[in-house]
From TrEMBL:
Its cofactor is ferriheme a; Cu cation. This is Quinol oxidase subunit 1. Catalyzes quinol oxidation with the concomitant reduction of oxygen to water. It is found in: Cell membrane. The lineage of its organism: Bacteria, Bacillati, Bacillota, Bacilli, Bacillales.
Length: 649
């Protein structure tokens, strides 16, 4: 029995036990459904082994939405706990676990997956490519992310979740103050998922640099592709820092090293520096693709070309550079001195300048435009004022002396969420709605989508604006309870109502997907938004090969010019198309990664050795495998194009 005690949850409650039962029943229902409908073969051949960037993008999207609801439940529980003084809905230990997993799930497994989903689906189409540069590596990236996410979420029911915050600061995350294995899950799951993200970054840099359509120079790329390029450069430089820090933290916990301990030469502040050298670029890894999405959406629904294209590109590059020069503002209060604080205060405020340029460019794009108030456009319009408020309060936090008042209060929580929610979540929902017809062949219902938008927009403001007041009044973040005389009750109650509004908005999105899948027309054409970029020049749904003929690009808006200026986009004849083969190796290899990670969490070394051997064998097999892909013959391409009601060009 001693062996099994290590798998027990350290803070069991009826909620945990009910969740275990619910997870078990859900898993049984899914497996039974796949078996009953005889879909195992289809699942394996079409999804688990796919290397198609579009299917991988859809799997990222589904995973991101699941993680959004997983993290959203945590948020509701936190807001419910603090909605009234002296509440006993959650214990202190439960609250610590919930706010830790909320942050990790939302940043690493929701937001990162969402941006990767849209990059996967859209970028190859926008640059006129057949697929990404390394399709099998792309599949490996997804399954590494997925297995990392599953390993982390397993902590909820086996062994216990981490409870030292999403930043996992040492010495709190060390063995003395976090003796249970929850932090092991954090360290190892994030390494597995982060490896997948790093591979994605390298893959998309090569794809964008080497696989653009003829004539598409760098300064003719769509803004979303530009934002994806800079984002993946940030990933390639930032994520190795996090990986090294996590490896060092793992060794401290499992092997007794002293990188981040308070004795024997350790330095806890080293973790803080490593984490935020990654962590602040991570903010822009999330936000820059959002800026690219808003650029596409605002241009499309203003019926105007994007104002100030060159300045938009330059501002993205400047933001990405400054992103590596501001990390110390996360610990202004930790004693590094006035000179250092002053330098990083200046760089922090400077980053607002290129961001402001982008906002003015979007406003000028809409100026004298014929604006269509579609759901994606509403999210884009709602983003501007809410994000501006979040950004301005960020400048306030960037004033080092004032930060002594704001730091570690709910003011900081309000600022962060009013940047991330409009700057990432609004953008992802705008992008999902905008590209949904190209992904699935039907449009989401506009009326239900607008109901969802207003619930989410109003809920965001109601949930987080009161935190500015309670924070200035002295409410510290991470407090799981407070007394009535503190006076925080009314502000926290308003925040709870705002969280309910957000929840209702996301429920409406789920209902919209169900309703539209059932009742929406499939006869929407290839370009239902009258858009401007190449992804809308493909057939709907997009065939495996993307383009029957590689497009020839001679402007920044090739599709728009072909529609309204008579320029020829497809100049060649249809020929045989070379495509990569599917492979089950990425999926199988990441199962070994999952098993190895689980073994490391519990220090089950025989399990780790066997899983590591499995990974090594698969790498060895791949090293000697010769896979030349396959060809889709021209006759089959013509038949597919004709069946999609298109001409053969």
């Amino acid at each position: 029995m001693e062996f099994f005690k290590q798998f027990a949850v350290p803070n069991p409650t009826p909620t945990i036990y009910l969740s275990m039962v619910a997870i078990g029943l859900t898993l049984i229902a899914v497996l039974a459904g796949i078996t009953y409908f005889k879909k195992w073969g289809y699942l394996w051949s079409e999804w688990l082994t796919t290397v198609d960037h579009k299917r991988i993008g859809i799997m990222y999207l589904i995973s991101a939405l699941l993680m959004l609801f997983r993290g959203g439940v945590d948020a509701l529980m936190m807001r419910a706990q603090t909605s009234m003084p002296g509440n006993e809905l959650l214990s202190a230990a439960e609250y610590n676990e919930i706010f830790t997993t909320h942050g990790v799930v939302m940043i690493f497994f929701m937001a990162m997956a969402f941006i990767t989903a849209l990059m996967n689906f859209v970028v190859p189409l926008q640059i006129g490519a057949r697929d990404v540069a390394f399709p099998r590596l792309n599949a490996l990236s997804f399954w590494l992310y997925f297995m990392g996410a599953m390993l982390f979420n397993l902590s909820f029911v086996i062994g216990g979740s981490p409870s030292s915050g999403w930043t996992s600061y040492f010495p709190l995350a060390g063995n003395e103050l976090s003796p249970h294995i929850g932090t092991n899950y954090y360290m190892i799951a994030l390494q597995i998922a982060g490896l997948g993200t790093l591979i994605t970054g390298i893959n998309f840099i090569v794809t964008i640099f080497k696989m653009r359509a003829p004539g598409m120079k760098l300064m003719k790329m769509p803004l979303f592709t530009w934002s994806a390029l800079i984002t993946n450069l940030l990933i390639t430089f930032a994520f190795p820092v996090l990986t090294v820090a996590l490896a060092m933290g793992t060794m401290d916990r499992l092997f007794g090293t002293h990188f981040f301990t308070m004795d024997n030469g350790g330095m806890a502040m080293l973790w803080a520096n490593f984490f935020w050298v990654w962590g602040h670029p991570e903010v822009y890894i999330l936000v820059l693709p959002a800026f690219g999405i808003y650029s596409e959406v605002i241009s499309t629904f203003s019926k105007r070309n994007l104002y100030g294209y060159t300045s938009m590109v330059v501002s993205i590059v400047v933001i990405s550079t400054l992103a590596f020069l501001v990390w110390v503002h996360h610990f202004f209060t930790m004693g590094q001195g006035a000179l250092v604080n002053s330098i990083f205060s200046i760089t922090t405020m400077a980053i607002a300048i290129p961001t402001g340029i982008k906002i003015f460019n979007w406003l000028f794009t809409m100026w004298k435009g014929k604006i269509q108030f579609t759901v994606p456009m509403l999210y884009s319009l709602g983003f501007i004022p809410i994000f501006t408020i979040g950004g301005v309060t960020g400048v306030m936090l960037g004033i080092a002396s004032a930060d002594y008042q704001y730091h570690n209060t709910m003011f900081l929580v309000a600022h962060f969420h009013l940047v991330i929610i409009p700057g990432v979540v609004f953008a992802m929902l705008a992008g999902m709605t905008y590209w949904w017809p190209k992904m699935f062949g039907f449009m989401l219902n506009e009326r239900i989508g607008k109901w969802a938008f207003w619930n989410i927009a109003i809920g965001t403001c109601l949930a987080f604006f009161p935190m500015f007041i309670s924070g200035l009044d002295g409410q510290a973040r991470r407090m799981y309870t407070y007394s009535e005389v503190a006076g925080f009750g009314i502000w926290n109650l308003l925040s709870f109502f705002g969280a309910l509004g957000l929840a209702m908005g996301f429920i409406l999105i789920v209902f919209n997907v169900y309703y539209s899948a059932r009742y929406a027309s499939r006869d929407i054409g290839d370009d239902p938004w009258d858009a401007r970029t190449l992804e809308w020049a493909t057939r709907t749904p997009v065939p495996e090969y993307n383009f029957a003929v590689t497009p020839q690009v001679d402007s920044r808006e090739p599709l728009w010019d072909s529609k309204y200026e008579g320029k020829t986009l497809f100049k060649e004849e249809i020929k045989d198309i070379h495509m990569p083969n599917n492979s089950g190796q990425p999926f199988i290899m990441t199962i070994f990664f999952f098993v190895a990670g689980f073994g490391l969490v519990f220090s089950m070394w025989p399990v780790v050795y066997v899983a590591a051997a499995g990974i090594a064998v698969l790498l060895f097999i791949r090293s000697f495998e010769r896979d030349d892909g396959r060809h889709i013959h021209a006759e089959e391409v013509r038949e597919t194009e004709n069946n999609k009601r298109g001409d053969t060009r």
